[in-house]
Amino acid sequence: MSANGLPLGKCLVVGACGMLGHALVRQLLAAGESVRLFDLGVWDGPPGAQALQGDLRDAAAVDRAVEGMDTVFQLASAVWNPKLPRHLFEEINVDGHRHVIEACLKHGVKRLVYTSSMDVVLRGRTPIVDGDETLPYRPDANDEPYVRTKIAAEKMTLAANGKGALSTCAIRPVGMYGPRDRYHLPALIGLAKSPFAVRMGDGRARFSHVFCENASWAHLLAARQLGPGSPVAGQAYFVCDDGPAENFFTFLEPFLARLGLRLPKRSIPYAIAYPLAALVERLSPTSVFNRFSVIQTCVDMTFVHRKATRDFGYRPPVGRKEALERTVAWLLKEAKTVPAPESDATATVDSTT
Predict the structure, then answer these.
(1) CATH number of the domain enclosing 322
(2) Catalytic residue among 114, 137, 146, 314
(3) What is the DSSP string of 4-38?
C-alpha cells in the first residue's frame, strides 16, 4: 500500500489503543511517519511511537498532546452502549472533542481528521440503501445520546475548517470489525454460544461493514489530501468494504464457523422483535436487546464510498477473505485476554455499531 499526497509532518492519534487506532498507528509507522499517541489506555502495539496517557475531558492534557503536531487524527469517543451514563457522551464526545479542536487552533495544527459514524444519518426504522453523503443528519436524535453527540462533534469539526491554519474532514465508518474488536464480534459470538440465542428478521435485510484496516487507510489517505482549497476540506465521507452488503447473520456465519460455532436456528420475525425490544427497554434500559439492535439486523442499512474514492482515492486495500483470516486469527489467539469495555472515557471508536 502507498499513499501519495501532502506530507503529514508530526502526527497525533487520539484514541490510539482501540481497534481503529491500532490499525492507523501501524500504517503511519509503516509509512515512516513521526507518531505520538494519546489515550487513557496503555499502548501495547509496536514500538516507534511516543505514547502519552490522558483523558479527553482534561483540556490541559489534550493541549500538551496536541502541542507541536502537524496532523491530528481524533478517533476517541464514547461508543454506543446502553450501560454508559448519559452524561459521559456529552463530556467525552462533545466537550472532549472541543478540547481537541481548541488545541489544534491554538497550536497551528494543519490537519484534523475526525472519526464520525454512519449513525449520524440513520433514521430509526427507515431503510437506507446505498446511502451517501447527501443524506441529512438524523433529525430526531435528542433521545439518543450517542447519535446526538456524534452529530454535534462532526458539525464542530467541519465548522472548524478554514479557521487559522486548520483544515478538517470527517470519516464515517460503517459497521466496523477486525482484530481488537471489543464490542461487535465478541458480543455476537457470546450470543451464539448462549442456549437462548435467536436470529432476528427473515434474513433479507442488508448491512454494510468495513474492516478496521480499510477504515484506517481511509483516514490516512484523507489526511494526505487535506489542505486549504482541497476538495476534502470541510467534508464528511462514508467508508466501507467493497462487495455487496450482506445480511448481518450471513456476515457473521463464517466467523462462527471458524470458531466451531453455528448460527442460531431459531428466529424472531421483525414484527415481533421490535415491539418486544421496546418492552425490554422499558423494563431493563441497559439491555443490549433493544430497538437499536433489532433495526440493525432487520432493516436495510447499506452505504457506498464513491465520494471517498473520487476525492482522495479510497479503495479498500484488504479484501473480505483476508479480513476474515486476520480477524479470526486474532479471535482465536487473543479474544480471551481482551478487557471488557470500560464505563468511562477509556471507550474508543472500536466499533460504531
Answers:
(1) 3.40.50.720
(2) 146
(3) -SS---EEEEETTTSHHHHHHHHHHHHTT-EEEEE
